[in-house]
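Action item from last week, closing it out:
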Amino acid sequence: SNTADPRSISRLSARISTAFSNPKPSTNTRLCCSRIAPSSLALLSPTITMADAKRVQDLKDIANRLRVYSIEATSAANSGHPTSCMSAAEVISVLFHQEMRYDVSKPRDPNNDRFILSKGHAAPVLYAAWHIAGHKKVTYEELLNLRKFGAPLEGHPTPKLDFVDVATGSLGQGLSVAAGMAYTGKHFDKHEYRTYCMMGDGESAEGSVWEAFSFAGHYKLDNLVAIFDVNRLGQSDPTALQHNVEMYKLRAQSFGWHAIIVDGHDINAVIAAFNEAKATKGKPTCLVCKTYKGYAWDNAAEGINDLMGWHGKPLGARAADVLAKIKSGTNMSAFIPPPSPRVSLSAPNTSFIGLSSPPSYKPDEQVATRKAYGNALKKLGESSTRVVGMDGDTKNSTFAITFQQAFPERFIECFIAEQNLVGIGIGCGCRGRTVPFISTFSAFFTRAFDQIRMGAISQANIKCVGSHAGISIGEDGPSQMALEDLAMFRTIPNATVFYPSDPVSMERAVELAANTEGIVFIRSSRPALPRLYENDASFAVGKSKVLKSSASDKAVVIGAGVTTAEAMKAYATLAAEGINIRVIDIFCIKPIDQQLLIESARAASNNVITIEDHYPEGGIGSAVAEALAGESGITIKSLAVRRIPSSGPGGKLIEEHGISAAALVAEVKKLA
């Protein structure tokens, strides 16, 4: 019937296709094709028409070409994962030559469909796909340089390659990024490009995968297709579910997805499944592809196919025989031009994003820097539609709610799933489509450290804002107190780390973050803090501020956030007693203002005291010590939280843990 449901048509198409392609159909196949009207045939998958029989054969041959190049590349490297590539070959063939719309000459064109290979260890099949598709830099010779020092084709994909949006290989992260891309396409770009993510079955044990499933199902991302390559075998054991594809389907459905079980080695079935995914509206689609690790047509990989012991190993002495058998039945010139994208998007406007109005705090006004963050983000949103915000159900505490109330269409609630929260942000920021600000309690970013670490390798452009830092939050207790966050973000290569001490500097830190490429972390505080700077004060990346100084300073005190306020109190107490100290608000911890620190230490009797609401390891004290490590004669004393705290009023805890103005006064007097 011409009015048949598209999903029913796709299922019927798959059965007919199987009947045509299988010389020994199963006994339960009961189709009489001569009775199907031509008008109905037109609705079915094109794989059943004579005109497309060659296309299907070409896709089969392309799949075998993918296998051949994956085996050859890993053999040349004498390392890698050829069997994981072999299981994915048919799906990749259909994706790159039938399903995805993209411009091979412009891999990051905003109009292209997106693809994330979450099972990054199968990188050779991705490289082979771009080689076959015609990417000029991925030559056959380059494939054979896989994993070699200095070669662009690394063991796992990274964005050093223009066809890779994010680094993968730390399993379980790809779907979150893909969901961020899909959300961007559906809600921000409002474009019809689609996003595909291939995962291994083993990585489905990662909780972050199901955080992403929950997110995509909740937001009905029908432009997203997740693909499980269920090849049954893990690294050291079979996977937990092995080939229980029905369980994968049920799990996907439970999160609001449309799920399809597919024979992942049947080109016709794979095409039909993708057609069904495109016809599915109002929910994302998951293809559960039953495959075999090390699979090749006509049992060409006998002794390797579906057997343990081959994970992460080249085929070695078996390679020549397997390659000969695959090539003997394959047209190694088979090629189908990829479909072109529908062009309507242009490159993003990357001009400066400024606050729509300057800070306007009163001299005697005390404002928490977390509140100033919300004010600043709203101002950035007024200046640029590229600015988007997201949070993990803490927006009324982080003050991201200020942005949400002003721009609900540009705010994403990611709920209590911090790994997915960061992954969504990374995906939203890909190809420069948005400038994502990600907020939650600072302590909870530790949960997503691997996503942040991989974000650095991915050259991600995300702005992480963590509130409720340190013991100064008070009664909530140690589970909510971020005391490791500065150390964590300081380890991230090329990251920028801000720790503002008043509302004016916070607004400017947010502005700087929006215009600083890469991963930026801003640490905000819960207590209300006094205004330290004039509203027109200027700030810069890598620069600190001297708040107090004299020609007779006994020490330089370096703080941030709540401890800058404590340092200013200590300054007043000591000044009343005739003792001068220099006070520095560090503002930017990474990159650090090394020259100012050296000059200030020399001008203050070579005595340096750091004071911080953080554990001593990796925080301000560590950063200052590293900056001054090459300078002789300088003494550094660190005041920090040195044991696990407890609940209590913030002021009391600051006193108890020795980071108060009184503790600082006592330390300075030891020097005087």
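Closing note: The chain has 24 helices and 19 strands.
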